[in-house]
Amino acid sequence: MSSKSDVIENLRKSVLDLDVDRVRAAAEEAVRLGIDPIEAIDEGLAKGVHTIGDKFAAGEAFLTELVMAGEAMKAGVEVLRPVILQRKLQRKSTGIVVIGTVHGDIHDIGKNIVTVMLEAAGFDVNDLGVDVPPDSFVDKTKESKAHIVAMSALLTVTTPEQKNTVQALEKAGIRKNVKVAVGGAAVTSEWAREIGAEGYSDNAVDAVELFKKLVAS
Questions:
Q1: Within 10 A of 142 (CB to CB), how many other CB atoms are there?
Q2: Bridge partners of residue 186, in order along the sequence
Q3: Would you give the end-to-end CA distance of the chain in angstroms?
Q4: Are 163 and 134 in contact, with CB atoms under 8 Å apart?
Q5: Which of 16, 37, 95, 102 is most buried as measured by Cβ atoms within 10 A of its Cβ?
């Protein structure tokens, strides 16, 4: 019979190996052994994703590997989630984020990677998907009491929607309650400053550190 440390290490290694089926099996074993699901996520799944993320940042892993590591982690979390809900456990939240690709833009690979990395770092992430109008950002920010609103834009023609969303947050009277972070291939640090965003990042790994700083500030 596997020990707790064996199972947690297997979760971490299975994510590193990008093996979704093995991750799911290891998570099921964690449930059978009564291992704390929060610990299984933080010490197993998330550590695997962090390692791939560091390798990606260093140019030692491909984008596809980071995406697949995220999918593997999600598969494990799906197995563990019912136990978390049943025990009414709460993972200590790093912060609450609302994220989406802005109106008119349907690109989501970068956003999805940032979402996975944030979840691995303990953030509660409300992913609105793609082609998200300003009002949807506003509504979800109010509902979730988010600390950060994050917007991605891959197309130059859609970057004005980031500005429109900032204005919508102001009009709704909640701009002062949240930090705004922007990113995407069409976005620059100069544009972020121009629209009054507090944060800008051009990659998923740096985005996590940025978001931690924004929550702490």
A1: 16
A2: none
A3: 46
A4: no
A5: 102
CA-to-CA separations, 171 to 13, 29, 69, 167, 188, in angstroms, rounded: 47, 50, 39, 6, 25
The rounded distance, in Å, linking the Cα atoms of 157 and 35 is 49
CATH 1.10.1240.10 residue spans of the chain: 4-86
Residue among 216, 214, 174 nearest 197 (CA): 214
Domain covering 4-86, topology: 1.10.1240
What is the CB-side half-sphere exposure of residue 180 using CA atoms within 13 A?
26
Q: Where in the chain is the domain with CATH 3.40.50.280?
A: 96-216
Q: How far apart are CA 134 and CA 129, in angstroms?
A: 13
- In the numeric block, which tokens belong to residue 67? 């995406």
At the second CATH level, the architecture of 96-216 is 3-Layer(aba) Sandwich (3.40)
Q: What's the pLDDT score for residue 1? A: 63
Q: Are 158 and 108 in contact (CB under 8 A)?
A: no
Please give the pLDDT value at position 20.
96
Tell me, rounded to whole angstroms, the distance of Cα 91 from its chain centroid: 15
Closest CA to 3 of 42, 25, 33: 33
Helices in the chain by DSSP H: which ranges? Answer: 4-16, 20-32, 37-39, 46-57, 63-86, 109-120, 134-144, 160-171, 189-194, 204-216
d(CA 45, CA 190): 36
Regions in the chain scoring below 50 on pLDDT: none
